[in-house]
Amino acid sequence: MSEQALRLGTRRSKLAMAQSGQVADAVSKVTGRPVELVEITTYGDVSRESLAQIGGTGVFVTALREALVRGEVDFAVHSLKDLPTAQPDDLALAAVPVREDVRDVLVARDGLTFAELPDGARVGTGSPRRMAQLNAYARSHGMTIETVAIRGNVDTRIGYVRAGELDAVVLAAAGLNRIGRIDEVTDFLSVDNVLPAPGQGALAIECAADNADLVAALGELDDPFTRVAVTAERSLLAALEAGCSAPVGALADLLADGQIVKEMRLRGVVGTTDGSTLVQLSTTGPVPETHDQAMSLGRELAAEMLAKGAAGLMGERAL
Questions:
Q1: Cβ atoms of residues 233 and 266 within 8 Å
Q2: Could you please report the per-residue DSSP string of 156-203?
Q3: What is the DSSP letter of 67?
Q4: Cβ distance 147 to 125 under 8 Å?
Q5: Active-site pick, 82, 101, 104, 167
Q6: What tens digit of pLDDT does each residue of 179-192 get?
Q7: Does the global pTM surpass 0.85?
Q8: Which residues does 68 contact at the CB level (< 8 Å), separation at least 6?
Q9: Coil, strand or helix: which one is 132?
Q10: Cα–Cα distance between 114 and 121 in angstroms, integer?
Q11: With contact defined as beta carbons under 8 Å apart, do 83 and 198 qualify?
Q12: Is 253 a catalytic residue?
């Protein structure tokens, strides 16, 4: 390969630039080529409407994918949870690197944990999934909270707490880790109480499917365990026919016996945003060895959840 720089398409946000910079360094190591960041503004970055109103699925991704197809960039980095579940034929999901912390976290005033929040505390999040589970968790502990829909970058969201407008906000641990602000977290929310979004904490590296050399080079960064886990989670989401703004949480855990990974457990949850009704199920089986096996695991759990009434709990089920 020549020494010509590879062009990496990225959103302009501080978080996107941080995670793209980390990927750029890794790609430079495996290819021996310099990588330059190409900033691209997406509809999700400029719209002030809620994600549910503007469609949720793909609003941060479409402009990056269009730049790839037009040949303006060589590859792109996405937060995997933003990717629509259907993969375009002309683009390859070349790598899913090792996953960051999957948990949601609380950034609250006065260093409060979730259990210490006062009655009626105002908790900000833009995610119906988080709203459903936070309200259900509060209800199960005899607490009442008010979930407040917010948008904006990390600075904007934490700013609501600092300004006294909200008692707390809920964010993804992975994002705060990547921008070096994890020390602002006042509580890490256990996945036993709040399941993350499908693919949360993972990145997706995408390029043109017909660029075999680049697909192979980027594939050096792929983590097979992360890939099968997020494939199962996203298969569940797709089988529920829900977009990434629907109140669906999913997590595939790899269960180890000592150093040997033996099984994978997939958990899923769907709920009403007020937390009054949740459908939460799990299944455990051998670690999938193929894409199709991971897809099957997700579809099977989705079918069980639909049989238990999950369809009626989602605002944007497409049937």
A1: yes
A2: HHHHHHHTTS-SEEEEEHHHHHHTT-GGG-SEEEPTTTSPPPTTTT-E
A3: H
A4: yes
A5: 82
A6: 999 999 999 999 99
A7: yes
A8: 9, 75, 76, 91, 206, 207, 208
A9: helix
A10: 10
A11: no
A12: no
